[in-house]
Amino acid sequence: MVKTYFYFLIKDYIVMKSCSKIFASLILMLLTVTVFAQQDFQGKAYYFSKTTLDMDNFGGRQMSDQQKKQIAERMKSMFEKTFILTFNKEESIYKEEEKLEAPGGGGMRFGGMSMGGGDQYKNVKENKMMVENEFFGKQFLVNDELPKLEWVMTAETKQIGKYLAMKATAVKKLDDTDFMSARRRNRGGENEEKAKDSTKTDNPMDEIEIPKEQTVTAWYTPQIPINQGPGEYWGLPGLILEVSAGRTTILCSKIVMNPGEKEEIKAPSKGKEVTQAEYSEIVKKKMKEMSEMFRGRGRDGGGRHN
Questions:
Q1: Helical spans, DSSP H, in 190-240
Q2: Cβ pair 124, 234 in contact under 8 A
């Protein structure tokens, strides 16, 4: 009789303890759902973006190791940046963190060609993306649909800070204006002979090529069920915390949920409004002009002797 009493007492305790765990889990889930269901919900995610460069053969024999090192240091500020993604349930704005620029800093330059990206706005409900771009001193506002990637989700996980992240991959198509994905041109065989030609110009674009596509690896957390991510990346069932694409890595370093001072998420409005296809054509046309100018300068200089 006593054994039976203690048996049921222990059984009831185990059941109650299990129910308590389940109840606690349900409460946590309800709190999470409640937080993200709020109409004025907002969060901020801080990202560090880094793009590595292959400087070994940049500039060929005409450039010393010291010169390559100096160029690499100058380009560091262009390829290592900190961004802030401010988001709610439907919208986000991705901005470079404000800081003092060194003289001549900001934007990207290839032999006098300057270009720079500005604020990036995404609206997943309206399937809209707007980006401010500066190109050769002119402001453009790229207004188009959100770029869509066919994500392949996996069961692989890892811990990023206090968040459990899951892995997804996709193949991204590139065009001739994806300069952050540029790589050193492989000059083998016939191309190598051309490189030795005395008419070779100083056009920096001759040194690089842009692949047709690249694999993108993303890590997202279902703990923040927001269909957002850094830059152009989105479309996963959770906030994207890390992206690896070519030589570029973007990593989230801090997340602030419902900050005390909320920021209005506004679509950018500066610049001439164009579609992504129209902007790409503008860049390609200018790139062609620059390339012809460099080659013409090389031919003129090749026939003169000081």
A1: 190-195
A2: yes
Residue with tokens 């002797």: 305
Closest by alpha carbon to 218, among 123, 120, 131, 152?
A: 152
User: CB of 265 within 8 A of CB of 120?
Assistant: no
Please tell me the distance from the alpha carbon of residue 43 to that of residue 15, in angstroms, as a whole number.
38
Q: Residue 18 corresponds to which amino acid?
A: S
Domain extents in the chain: 1-37, 40-300
Rounded Cα gap, residues 245 and 4, in angstroms? 64
- Torsion region of 111: left, alpha or beta (phi above 0 gives left; psi -120 to 50 gives alpha): left
pLDDT at residue 104 is higher than 60 = no
Rg (CA), the chain: 26
SS3 assignment for 172-196: EECCCCCHHHCEECCCCCHHHHHHC
Q: How many CB atoms lie within 10 A of CB 36?
A: 15
Cβ proximity of 140 and 133 under 8 Å: yes
Q: Where are the alpha helices (DSSP H) in the chain?
A: 2-37, 65-79, 190-195, 276-302
Contact indicator for 165, 241 with CB cutoff of 8 Å: yes
What pLDDT score was predicted for residue 261? 84
Q: Are 85 and 93 in contact (CB under 8 A)?
A: yes
Rounded-to-integer distance, Cα 263 and Cα 191, Å: 52
89 vs 66 pLDDT, higher one: 89
Angstrom distance (rounded) from CA 70 to CA 64: 10
CB 204 within 8 A of CB 198: no
Query: How far apart, in whole angstroms, are the C-alpha atoms of residue 81 and residue 49?
Result: 5
Please tell me the predicted confidence (pLDDT) of residue 240. Answer: 98
Q: What does DSSP say about strands 108-110 and 128-135: parallel, antiparallel, or unpaired?
A: unpaired
